[in-house]
Structure formats: structure tokens, C-alpha cells
Amino acid sequence: MNNQGFSPPQNAGNQDFNQRGFPHYGHQQGQGHGKSIQYPGGHCGNLSSNRGVNHRAFGSFDGLSGNPQPIEAPTRAGPSSALVTHTSSTPNYVRSQRSDQLNDLTSGPDQRPAATIALRADNFPFVEGARYDYSPSTYGVVKIKNIPFDTNRAEIIAMLGRNSKIINDRHEPVHIIMERVTNRTGDAYVEFMTMYDAAQTVEKHQRASAQGRPHRLGDRPVEMELSSQAALMRDLFPNARGILWDGATPHIQPLNPTEPWLSFKGFITEEEMTMLVKHVEVPQRSPFSRDCPQRPFECMISTMRKFPWYMTDCITIKQRQSVYAACVNLLRLLQEAMEKKKHEHVLNSQLYRRLWTSAMICRGFTVTMKDSISYLVGLTDEDKREFNMPRFADQWVHIYTLVPKPGTPLDVIEWYIAIIREETNRTVAQSLPNVQSELQRQGRQTSLYWGYLWKEVSHPYGPGFDNMTLAEMAHREFSALSNILRRALD
């Protein structure tokens, strides 16, 4: 990467980002935050809203020019936005409303820390969302076999009893396996706090069966056996070839040139995600879809929860997009079913909340993906903060792997973004007039909240972008941010 300037642009930046299949958010002068959610097949459902952000209290951002607007005294409690970087002494009334971390960073004589301080891990406010603070699941697992195809999770939890030590309900302890292509129900897995708790449950079942009182779902006696995270992952991701599961951790096997069909190509296929949506859109395709309409939604929940997102070197941008697109479509279809009061006993607000909650905590989704989902389901700004969402989340359109570090004050995040925006604007202003003009033309078609960061990252186009792994993308983003901050602060 050329740290002194930009190479001449090759294509119109905004058109390229739309072609990649990600949500694009237009931001034009005089209008609110316009939204467009990208659905499979290139169809965009337009959504628009005015978010009601108190710009007087927190400062505002002029998306057209890329210039931060002055911050005035806040009119409500909370940290003041750091969208403006001060070159002289910061007014006391501003410092009193900033977080301690931002005041520490800007306590020097020139109001800016050295690059080594700004890039220190305890100060740097961005992390790779898929990998940050991840630890593989070690919960105990019980497998329940011979279940009726229309079994629901409430029946399974009731059968196990109130005293069974399954994991907290908000962690989705029940996984009913569904063949994504046929929609056929398989076995069910239940996660327990420990392997000992799982073993105790199986022993209880075996004693009851020996006494002629087997556990039943409906009128059907079921079988119960001690299982493992590895078995659960194999059944949840049956098309993931070339993998040995060590608990919930996948180990990718070397390429076998004599049997390439057994080599690893991904944890899920695009066809699986497409068919998951089709089962809801066209339920008459399968009797299982008609009689068990909630199963595709539950399958999507289990997929997002158990997907090994931290294996970023094995997941491509395109594969992640297929999961996200299926999730958005299922949310939309569930909304429609609830409005029309179809299958109210299973397609209800509880299932809807489970689905969007799983999407909002999904490690693999970007900030703008989650922002689209939060808008679709009508979350407030306060609700979004519970999911570690930054303000101006719809302006993170060119960030594909990084997220705010949990616990980082909002003003620190926005101060870093302001430094990045200021430095990239300065670099563009120093480029040749023809290059500067072309970059500014591209900038008017997209968000400049992060300045011209998208040009410094210098993404490839077309299949080169789609097939890039999340690990490669994260490396590009970390490298670009580090280079920009060093230029700005050294």
C-alpha cells in the first residue's frame, strides 16, 4: 500500500459495493439515513427512516462533504461525541462530558496521543468480531432420537423436566436437526451445563425405560443417549466435507487430489441457505413445511448460533453473505406470517424474537448487517446498544470484519473514526487534481463517515472480493487503519 497517496481509481466505488451484495446506505444532503437491504437475486427492498438522533447533543456528520460538524453543549446526559478533533486546548465543558478514556488519550499538549499509544491493544477500539474473546463450546450434549417430525422445543424442554440442568434458554439449548434441502426433521440435541449433567439426564431416562415408563413426545416413546459437541456439529453442518470435529472445533483436513469431492469447500452451501428460504416461501413443496412451519426458522437460529465463525480463514465473504441474506429473508417472511396470523401457535412473537436476537449477536455479521436487521425489526437506539452497536452504524458500509470493542466508550470510537476521516481527506487533498477529482466523485456516491478508508484498503473487484476470506479482509482493514493512524499521529 502506498502510504503517501492513492493510486488512480479503476471503477466507480459505490457501484462496486452494491455489486458485492451488501446493503448500501445512501446519504445525501438534506435527507435522513436512507436504507436499502440487499436480497438474493439483486432485489433491493427500500427502507427509509429518520433515526431521531439528537445531533445537537452529540454532534453531526455531513455525509456529502465528509466534514464533521461542530459539537455544541449536550442537551441530555451521556458522553459528548468526539466527531471533532481539537488542535488547541479542548474546552472544559467538552472534557467534562467525555469519557475518562478519551480524556486520557487527548491529555497531551497537542490533544493527540502518539501512534504507539493509540494503537496499543488496551486503547484501540476495534476488534475482529468473529474472533474476539471466543472460546469453543464445552457444554454436555444429549441426543434424542425417534422424535415426531412436528416436535417443538417447548415439548422437549417440558419432557426433560424443570430440574434438568440445560443451559440458559437465551443461549438456545435445543437444536432440532433439519435437512435444509428436504426440510425433513431429524434428531434433536440438547445442551447441558456440564457433561455430568447430561449423563445424569440419560441415566434417569434409562431407569424410567427399564421400569416401563419411557419418556414420550406426544404418544411416541423416544430414545435418549449421551452425545457430544462433535456429533451435534456434524449433524448441523452435514455438507462440510474434509473436517474432523474435535468437540465444537473443526480441523480442516489436507486436500485429497484423488477424492476432491471429499475436500473442504465450506461449512454450508449457498443451495442450503436458498432452500431454507424456499421452504417458507413455497410450503406446498414439502409436507414437512406445511405441517411444521417453524422448523426453517429454528434451523436458521441453530445455524447462526453454532456456526464456527472464528474460523475466519475458512469462511469467504460470499459464504457469509448467503447466511445473512437467508436470515433477512426469513425475518421478513416471519413478519408477514405474523401479520396474516398464519400458524399463530408456532409462528409467533417468541420465535421472531429468538430469530432476530440470534442475528444481532451473530459473530460473523458486520455492523451494517446488524444495523439493517435492527431497522427491519424496529429496535430503538437503546436496544441496539445492548448488542454493542455504535452510533451512526449505517455509515460503517466499508467495514467488513471489524466491530467496536465491547465496553469501549462511544466517544472514543468516534474520535478514532474522526482521526481516520481527517487523515484520509488530507491525503486525497494532496493528490493530483485529476485523481482528487475522481476520488471525490466516487466519494459523493457513498458514505464518507470513515473518510476515504475504502480506497486505502483497496479491495479487489468481482470474484476476487467474493472469494476473499474473512481473515484476509481483517488483515487488510487492520493494516489500513494502522497505516493511517501512524501517518496522522507520528
TrEMBL record:
**Annotated segments matching region Disordered:** 1-111
Citing just one GO molecular function, the answer is: nucleic acid binding
**Gene3D superfamilies this protein is in?**
3.30.70.330
Where are the compositionally biased (Polar residues) regions?
A: 1-18, 82-109
Q: What is this protein called?
A: RRM domain-containing protein
